Amino acid sequence: MMRRGVGVRMSVLMLAVVTIAGAVMPGCGSGEKPKDNGIPAMPDYMQAYRKNEFRKALELASKAHRDEPEGVKRDRAAAVAGDSARWLGRNAEAERWVSPLLSSADETVSGWANSTLGMIEKEKGMYRQSADHLLAAAGKLRGSESASSWMYAGDSLSALGRKDEAKQAYLSGLAAVPASNTQLKGMLDQRLGQEAPTKDGGGRYTIQVGAYSSRDRAQAAADRLRGNLAGTSLGSPRIVQVSNKGKILYTVRVGMFQTREQAAREAKRLGTDATATLRTGE
């Protein structure tokens, strides 16, 4: 179960870490003695970060930052401290950690700093600044980190109404994402409207798993839901804008069914707040 206040705060660093088995943020060598296989041990703060133990990661990264001499290792500890603070909702502290790293000579460190600031700005609705920082991150990072930066930059550009630029950002993300990272590829495909069609042939009914006041929150919910749909025939989540009593809502839906009973059975398997409903607004 997602922790309250954390579930929708997916970041570039976390997305790269959690979606690839055994992934490590590039360059996070700890300076510790190598293991027997010759691979350097992962820093303790990075281990905590990978486990979503952000309070512990912040504490350990802060200590590493104090103990390390000036240099890349110290800056990388600061970058992880900053993103951990962001996940804890301590955005002002996160900004203090990463702002000095924007001009780092190490492109990875600078990329992480840009991505953390870009995500904070995205959450605040500062889409222009968010797009600038995330585009900068995309150009400095590699692999999944670059791809997810392109994706979130595209979200901010889309929020600004710059649809063509958003589409190009998503396409750049697809070009950067490793073939092994199927979750991130699916998220980019969904934004481009290229998700695989459902296997039920369409129908009047669907499963609705949530309704949100902002597209950003709906997109975050759809991204989380995607990970629970592996091995099902429901296809990819859809975001559908509807009007309810004069208010605009963004619903997250999945699957298409000929009867309400079929939709209800699948909704029960999904659990949580999933309900069968008509496909109004689609």
What does this protein structure show overall?
The protein is an alpha+beta fold and 282 residues long. It folds into two domains: 12-191, Serine Threonine Protein Phosphatase 5, Tetratricopeptide repeat, CATH 1.25.40; 205-278, Sporulation related repeat (Alpha-Beta Plaits, 2-Layer Sandwich). It is built from twelve helices and four strands. It has helices at 12-18, 44-50, 54-67, 72-87, 91-98, 107-123, 127-140, 143-159, 163-176, 182-192, 215-226, 260-270; strands spanning 205-212, 238-244, 247-257, 275-278. Strand 2 (238-244) and strand 3 (247-257) form a beta hairpin. It starts with 11 loop residues before the first helix and ends with a strand. 45% of the residues are buried.
* Share in helix: 40-55%
- Our count of helices gives 12
Radius of gyration: 20 Å
Q: What is the CATH class of the largest domain?
A: Mainly Alpha
**Helix/sheet category:** alpha+beta
**% residues in beta strands:** 5-15%
Count all strands and give the number.
Answer: 4
Question: How many structural domains are formed by the residues?
Answer: 2
> What is the fold-level CATH name, i.e. the topology of the largest domain?
Serine Threonine Protein Phosphatase 5, Tetratricopeptide repeat
Order of helices and strands: HHHHHHHHHHEHEEHE
Shape: elongated
Look at the structure and give the mean pLDDT: 80
Q: pLDDT under 50 segments (min length 5)?
A: 1-9, 18-39, 195-201
Biggest beta sheet summary: 4 strands, antiparallel
Roughly how many Å apart are the termini? 30 Å
Would you identify the CATH H-level superfamily of the largest domain?
A: Tetratricopeptide repeat domain
- Spatial strand sequence of the major β-sheet: 2-3-1-4
